[in-house]
Amino acid sequence: MKSYETVIGLEVHVELATETKIFCGCTTQFGGEPNTHCCPVCTGMPGTLPVLNKKVVEFAMAAGLATNCTITQNCKFDRKNYFYPDLPKAYQVSQLYLPICRNGGIEIEVGGLKKVIGIHEIHMEEDAGKLVHDPWEDCTLVDYNRCGVPLIEIVSEPDMRSAEEVIAYLEKLKLILQYLGVSDCKMQEGSLRADINLSVREVGAKEFGTRTEMKNMNSFKAIARAIEGERKRQIELLEYGKAVTQETRRWDDNKDTSFAMRSKEDAQDYRYFPEPDLVPIEISDEWLAEIRSRQPELRDAKMLRYETEYDIPAYDAGIITGSKKLADIFEETVAICGKPKEVSNWLMVETMRLLKESEMEPENIAFSADNLAKLIGLIGDGKINRTVAKEVFEEVFKTNINPVQYVEERGLSMVSDEGVLRSTIEKILAANQTSVDDYHNGKEKALGFLVGQTMKEMKGKADPGMINRILKELL
């Protein structure tokens, strides 16, 4: 069997985090009753005129700068004409000839090897509506709420060669966009969707094979499976001497296979022409410099700073900065309590454990930096031990309770009265003569047992260090 190479390029559609749509004042809020977030402008009623949302342009510029693109300082919109029920005006306002960002790229790392994935362009456009298929009534309904929601489309070069590289690229891109604040990137809500352009060719061949496109993929797991499935399908066709058809396909993750939807369109099929209702956009040097000055610290730079400034391990820095939410909590908590290693430990161990058990994403964390700092303060001040702290943190994680009040109300403060501890330990020793003898005979484990029995008697509210000291003294 011949050896084949997979060639992959992505078109990533990103919903921007503006409050209103790209050409009108309708809300971009997710959900809502069907056809309640729209107006004559976004549904393309005759006689209406669009007005460009300035924030959309600024978000697109920010994304372009963060992905090392050249900003097109004189750009414009075009009409992309096609007839489909979810597009009431029968055209989409997009950018073909002069996209706002061009010729960029981001670096990924897979298997210890670094590689730059080129970005051909980033352009602004409006979203279409949504078709809702009703199998019970055997009909299709249209919800126009999403019409006119602002998007940027990030078009990569065909530089990826595996599903692993694609996922690494998407994860890097997602983090950049979240750190910038230009999108929440919630794939389950359609804020980040990817179209996969894939072809195969014999290893060593210079020409690309015929590509297919799988549209609107909205989970990393489905994307990886779709790439592997389409790769195998195309290789099988070529092995049997058949041709790959250029077409748009739909991936069915439940059936683990793809289906042909329609022949793949090229630009000429959409009859693009300049949008006559919108003036060209002129981005001044001053405006561009202002956007550049607002760019936040991105993940790669933040990781390096955490290692040097906070002296935390590279692995910990990588996990914490892998979520903007976690990174924000880390920095805010450190600013309050001044204990970076302690904060890192709580995020890396207990927070990650509870996230996994709750099947939650870090973006959904509800507890505040202030309450985490208070919990760390209680430990540092000797008010509670770490065993009690873990129990309290579970409540902080679930309901963001004030740990100071919680400890006071439930009487969880640590007993540090030496007289009380000494009296309790004497009772434990009297009741466990066998363990006392074992300790005197050189069995160190016996001491651990006696510490545990004391902690149990004190209901966990004692200082293990003090217990150890008194036990050794009495023994």
TrEMBL record:
PROSITE patterns: GATB (PS01234). It comes from the Bacteria. Keywords: ATP-binding, Ligase, Nucleotide-binding, Protein biosynthesis, Transferase. One of its GO terms (biological process) is glutaminyl-tRNAGln biosynthesis via transamidation. It catalyses: L-aspartyl-tRNA(Asn) + L-glutamine + ATP + H2O = L-asparaginyl-tRNA(Asn) + L-glutamate + ADP + phosphate + 2 H(+); L-glutamyl-tRNA(Gln) + L-glutamine + ATP + H2O = L-glutaminyl-tRNA(Gln) + L-glutamate + ADP + phosphate + H(+). It is an enzyme of class 6 (ligase). Belongs to the GatB/GatE family. GatB subfamily. Allows the formation of correctly charged Asn-tRNA(Asn) or Gln-tRNA(Gln) through the transamidation of misacylated Asp-tRNA(Asn) or Glu-tRNA(Gln) in organisms which lack either or both of asparaginyl-tRNA or glutaminyl-tRNA synthetases. The reaction takes place in the presence of glutamine and ATP through an activated phospho-Asp-tRNA(Asn) or phospho-Glu-tRNA(Gln). This is Aspartyl/glutamyl-tRNA(Asn/Gln) amidotransferase subunit B.
